[in-house]
Amino acid sequence: MLLRSPHIRPRGVSGAALSVLAVCATLAALLLGVGAPQAAAASSLPCDIYAAAGTPCVAAHSLVRALYSSYNGPLYQVQRASDGATRNIGLPAAGGYANAAAQDSFCSGTTCIITKIYDQSSRHNDLTIEGAGGAGAADVGAPADALPVTVGGHQVYGLEISAGMGYRDDSTSGIATDGGAEGMYMVTSGTHVNNRCCFDYGNAETNNKDTGNGHMDAINFGTECWFSPCYGQGPWVQADLENGLFQSDAGHSKNTSDTGTGPLPFVTALLKNNGQNHFALKWGNAQSGGLTTTYSGGEPTTSGYSPMHQEGAIVLGTGGDNSNGSIGSFFEGVMTSGIPTDAADNAVQADIVSVGYGGATGSTGTLGPGSEISLRATTSCCTGDYVRHQNNAGVVSAITSGSSSLDKNDATWIVRRGLADSSCVSFESRNYPGDYLRHSDFRLYREPMDGTALFRSDATFCPQTGKSGTGTSFASYNYPTRYLRHYNHNLYIASDGGSNDFDSGNSWTADVSWAVSSPWAP
């Protein structure tokens, strides 16, 4: 039986026994080729599943939910800028979802960063902001409100990493060392990635430096192709085993069908390594379907990887030597003692899918926080045009019932409390979690929230009665005489008259007036 520290309610024997029975039923169903029952997935969470399969979690990190059905402790800690005070964000009930309302209340009127991510296992392998390493200066904490998301029907927050952010624990318990076997997964996003080193989660060096081949064993996710050839555009699930991001024993991809996950908003990324002569990589859509194995075979043929030489630290968001130029998203992840069975991996993926990452918020068509909307132009020429993103730029284009799913998703936004002022609003992309509509040099773009004061201001708009007498106009928070406007199918913040073409007074009042409508995306 696993116990947490005294300030967390221990898991009772009877609860553990019930969890084991439910997990066994789930595994049996999978082995028989039958889909896992929804009830079993709901009552048996990832670490229950892995424990029942004989490979218990030795680290379990999540900002969004419990990873044990009986866990009732803190998920993460936030620190607010106004006075430096901290608060743990936990669960309203055991086995549930993060109490994001507690964060919203604590951080109201100021900003917060995430300072600690708690390990839900009995090992206490908590992650704190990473210090300096061989390849990077000390990191900073991620903004606590950058990645709002719906999980299990609840409004919660994920972790959005920008360059220079990262978390680590260099003094751990139970993590594999010196060729020990382990497995790990994380739920991340295929829409917030880059080709810089290294968005990792997993086993790393204890001194924050590169100590040689085989001294890491971590999942990497991004578009960096370390060993050519890589196929497609990525992002790819790779193994950071130190001094290389490996897609096979040769380093480069041997799998021409592994072209990456593409821009899926939620991805399950999985790595298993016996520490001696075999590792495997898998990925899945965290919203539907099963897992795909992209590699299963020998350790890298270069010296130092067979056997492995893991040191047992845990890293999140950077490379083992704190190479911290990467970006990425993190919602949950675990590390296990021993290699989980494929059946256990499949059961965990079924549970992740059952959670409903990125589901509907439950509110539509208003400017209330959490409401999903589309913004329709009201100018007589363009009443079928909607605000959307396209190739990162903000534009308006015609959307109809016959439009593609991609177009409908691109034209759907989630209303969030204004990032710079909670009395105003910000617009989060429906299909690019953590990306917001913001202006730069007066043009509108879809970009990931980086936590800076400038981004917060650029992505905040204050609603007013429509300047044309209908609909709603949105004043720029940091340029209050400029309003969200469409001009020649592009989006700007525009004044009524000025030296720029998009400031033209012609039809200005209509162009800055918008109808807030129900979302095009379901």
Automatic annotation (TrEMBL):
Belongs to the glycosyl hydrolase 54 family. This is Alpha-N-arabinofuranosidase. The active site is at 242 (nucleophile), 321 (proton donor). The keyword Disulfide bond applies. One of its GO terms (molecular function) is alpha-L-arabinofuranosidase activity. The keyword Manganese does not apply. One of its GO terms (biological process) is L-arabinose metabolic process. Residues 46-357 form the Alpha-L-arabinofuranosidase B catalytic domain. InterPro entries: A-L-arabinofuranosidase_B_cat, ABFB, AbfB_ABD, AbfB_ABD_sf, ConA-like_dom_sf. It comes from Streptomyces fodineus. Disulfide bonds join 47-57, 107-112, 197-198, 424-462.
